Protein 1
Amino acid sequence: MTVTEYHAHVYFNDSNIHQAKILIECIREEFNVNIGRMHEKTVGPHPVWSCGIEISKSEFEKVYAYLLLNHEEFSVLIHPVTGDDMLDHTKFAM
């Protein structure tokens, strides 16, 4: 299997969506990443509201370190993109 990029999914809810938008905007300004929509509903395998971030292999270490230090109250699922969505979101996820 080959890793082509990484995804991070920031999980939030109606009580902390404002803070989630601030975190996402900081990431958008700081890094060369693609930010998905802020989903105010469950989407795909994600059990709560979420926002996806596409991270290139070259940016991964910096974005990962930023999320470790700044995720505050948010749970963040991080996974490689290998072409197997089920494995990427389960076995390969951090």
Note: Strands lie at 5-12, 34-39, 49-55, 76-81.
Protein 2
Amino acid sequence: MNSSTQKDIVADKNLVAFCGLYCGACRSYLKGKCPGCNNNIKATWCKIRTCCIDKNIKSCADCKSVVLLDCAKYNNVISKMFGLILNSNRPACIARIKEIGYDGFTLEMTDKKLHSIKRR
């Protein structure tokens, strides 16, 4: 895929990242520069991804062993910096997934063309 070609934003629950972001509306994913969190085997640096894979869960929304706000893997310095830079509220994404499910979340994020719920 060349840099002038961009994918369309589509609702696909397989494009929900382990941390709650929606890769299906991410600029890097849409431009073909990133395969999305679930398919990014090079993202071994992501402790959230590793944890969810180890627990065999789709995202932190499915975690039963740790309270999200107390999770050191979810609330690390790098994640907080990315959240500030990208104006991203990943905990709100996880809460929304818990509220309306993966299908509802992907439809909502696709409709709004957002990769994350924004910070207020």
Note: The radius of gyration is 14 Å.
Protein 3
Amino acid sequence: MRRSEYFEAIGRGDAERVRELVAEEPELLRELTGPSYAPEQQLRCTGLHAAVYAGSPDVARVLVDAGIDLEAATLEGRRAVHDSIEFGQAAITRLLEEAGAELDICCAAILGRLELLREWLDKDPALANDRTTGLSPLGWAAFGNQTETARELIARGARMDDGELSCAASVGHVEVARVLLEAGFDPNYACPESGTTALHAAAALHYTCDSAAFVDLVLEFGADPSAKTSAGRTALAIAEAGQRAELAAPTEGAPKNFAAVVERLRRA
């Protein structure tokens, strides 16, 4: 079986070669690997997950047409449609939805599909706190800056105890963060494993170029700028380290505005 060749072809977006391989060896559609960003992690990723990571709608189309399992999940409970939404692969998301992939409550939350979200909650109110994907629906809504689905989830009993504010922090989403904070989310909630708060997450600027407005917001609601992670780092230390790294080796695309975050944290 040409498993390695199959995943390599997916990784480089070679739809024609993937088509040839799965036609010759249909069992390749059931093969699993680690994610392309960390292949040593055996999370049971299918070729469809790999196509999402590669950002290749053409390969995804080939795999869907060949009959790959749309609902296959990783060990973290994530299906390819979850990853396509999180990674902003809108064309693949449309393809999977049209092919019949189920949009569960987490998909509804991050996409802002309020009516679909309500349908799921009407069927099973406990889904407001579903953790099948490793992240609550409220966390998905926070990551997608979906204020209406966030409000609906909170009204339906969603707990705010799983780092949902840090999800908003990682992408600098102020609007949904305000919804969480006004509903009572603790601005100093820390991840039990890492000790990371939303302020630490905002200071890292992992998925956004500027989180200064987010920092202002959580400080307004009482976030503690002196709080340290389990590794002993404050948000200011994280932002300063990021600023130094950015100056030493600028990232591709828009530069990250560590300077504004550093300025606010020094002032706090």
Note: The radius of gyration is 20 Å.
Protein 4
Amino acid sequence: MRTLACAVALLAVAACARPLPREELVDLTHPFDASTIYWPTEESFVLEGAPGGVTEGGYYYEAHRFRAAEHGGTHLDAPIHLHAGGEHVDEIPLEHLVAPGVVIDVQAACFDDRDHEIGVADLQAWEKQNGEIPRGGIVLFYTGTSRYWPDREAYLGTTARGQEAVSSLHFPGLGADAARWLIAERGVVAVGIDTASIDRGPSRRFETHQTLFAANVPAFENVAALELLPPRGFRIAALPMKIGGGSGAPLRIVAFVPRSSP
């Protein structure tokens, strides 16, 4: 029975990940290259290898190597990142990565306050206009910060590197109280944001990370192109590199958006 249940669950996930005839795919991922933004304490993305060319056998061949931290660019934070005993990247259920999505637009508040902390009031205001956040869904926050990518100073608030630069970070994020509300009242399975961290830049204890990860709710960071999505009515597939024992991983995240009727 367990095997049959697992098979049914996998078929359901596969069906959700397959675009329907009247769906459009929207890529929500920043490219990984030399300009990719990483946390100030991490090195940049590096792609190594010579350009491709024709071999002695007469066929074209190209292959490279890359070096990168787990946490940088569009990526997933696994619960183990800030919660002992939390799930590693390879342990996160697919149902937490492929699910109905909503986008909560808080860019007006973030324009007024670069360090805006998204609160329960922001969530309730969105629901008043758009309806209740679906249980088992993925909530994405559009702060407008993604418009600055890949300008490090505009995006992070500083161009400095190293541990001392962390105190100079300025960008919006989700408050811990709002994270608790999303878990307890709406049963979300994942959250994402178009900034470098689900906690706002000035955070020092990363309480939102801790709150989410204690409930095994993963976070997607540096998400792109959220301005292209409607508030609700679409599906998300957020599939990270399956790093065994990883605390995070590069992420390819896409939205399945219903096409408008002709």
Note: The CA atoms of residues 177 and 243 lie 30 Å apart.
